[in-house]
Design a protein that fits this description.
By secondary structure, this protein is α/β, with parallel strands linked by helices. The chain has eleven helices and five strands.
C-alpha cells in the first residue's frame, strides 16, 4: 500500500504467535521505541502482545546471547550471565500471542550466534525486524555516540580511521560489524529465512513513522506507540 507523506508503506501484522526480534541497528531511534514499548506494557498486554521483562530494553539478554561485554573490558566490563538470555527465551516462548523483543546489540551477532538465537526463540515463530538509516546521516551520529562513550577523536580523524582496512581501524573497530547493512540483512535472511525478515529504511520520513510501522507489525492501534514517542531519546549532540 502507498505511504502517506512522511510515512512508510502500511505493512500487514505479523503472524498471531510471532516473536518479533528487533535487532537495531544503532542510531535508528531504538532508544525512543524501547521507551515507548516499555511504558506501553499494559496496553500491549491488553492487546495480546508481550514485551518481556521489566526493563526498558533487552540489552543484557542480547549481550549474553552474543557473548559481548557490557562496558569496556579493561575497565571492569563483563559479559552478562547466560541466564539473562535464558529468562528472555523462557518468557517469550511461553507467550500464547505476539511478542516483541528489542535490543540493537543483537545486530552484532555473528553467523553462529544469530543461528543460536533464532533456534532458541523458535525458527517457526521468530520474525527479525531490522531498521536501517542512510549511511551519510548515520556516520556523524555514530561518531557523536562514540564521543559519549569516551572516544577522543575529531570527526575527520574518526571518519578516516573508520574507512581504513580492518586491521588498521583502531578508534571504533566495531562500527562495520554493526553497520555493514548488506552483510547484516544477508546474515539474518540466511538464518531466519527471507520470508521472516522485515527491513525498515528510515529515509525522509516523519519521526512517528517507525512507531506506526511497529504498531502495524504488532497488530495494535498506532496511537499506543505514537502517543509515547516523546518519552525519551538518544539524540546526537546539538550545536
Amino acid at each position: 500500500m502507498a505511504a502517506d507523506a512522511g510515512q512508510l508503506p502500511v505493512v500487514a501484522a505479523l503472524p498471531e504467535r510471532a516473536i518479533a526480534l528487533h535487532i537495531g541497528v544503532h542510531k535508528t531511534g531504538s532508544t525512543s521505541l524501547q521507551a515507548a514499548l516499555a511504558d506501553a506494557r499494559g496496553d500491549l498486554a491488553a492487546a495480546g502482545v508481550l514485551y518481556p521483562g521489566s526493563r526498558t530494553a533487552h540489552h543484557g539478554a542480547a549481550l549474553a546471547a552474543i557473548g559481548k561485554a557490557w562496558g569496556w573490558r579493561d575497565r571492569g566490563g563483563a559479559v552478562p550471565s547466560s541466564g539473562a538470555f535464558d529468562r528472555l527465551v523462557a518468557s517469550a516462548t511461553a507467550a500464547p500471542g505476539r511478542v516483541i523483543i528489542s535490543s540493537e546489540h543483537f545486530c552484532e551477532a555473528d553467523d553462529a550466534a544469530a543461528s543460536r538465537i533464532v533456534e532458541r526463540l523458535g525458527d517457526d515463530r521468530t520474525e527479525v525486524v531490522i531498521v536501517l538509516r542512510n549511511l551519510a546521516d548515520l556516520l556523524p551520529s555514530s561518531w557523536q555516540q562514540y564521543l559519549k562513550y569516551g572516544v577522543r577523536a575529531t570527526y575527520p580523524d574518526w571518519l578516516r580511521n573508520t574507512f581504513e582496512p580492518p586491521s588498521e581501524r583502531t578508534i571504533s573497530p566495531s562500527f562495520w560489524k554493526r553497520n555493514d547493512h548488506g552483510a547484516l540483512v544477508e546474515r539474518w535472511t540466511r538464518v531466519a529465512g527471507p520470508e521472516r525478515v522485515t527491513v525498515i529504511v528510515l529515509e525522509q520520513v516523519d519521526r512517528s513513522a517507525v512507531f506506526r510501522t511497529f504498531a502495524q507489525l504488532l497488530g495494535i492501534d498506532e496511537e499506543v506507540l505514537v502517543s509515547r514517542m516523546g518519552l525519551t531519546s538518544n539524540r546526537s549532540m546539538t550545536a
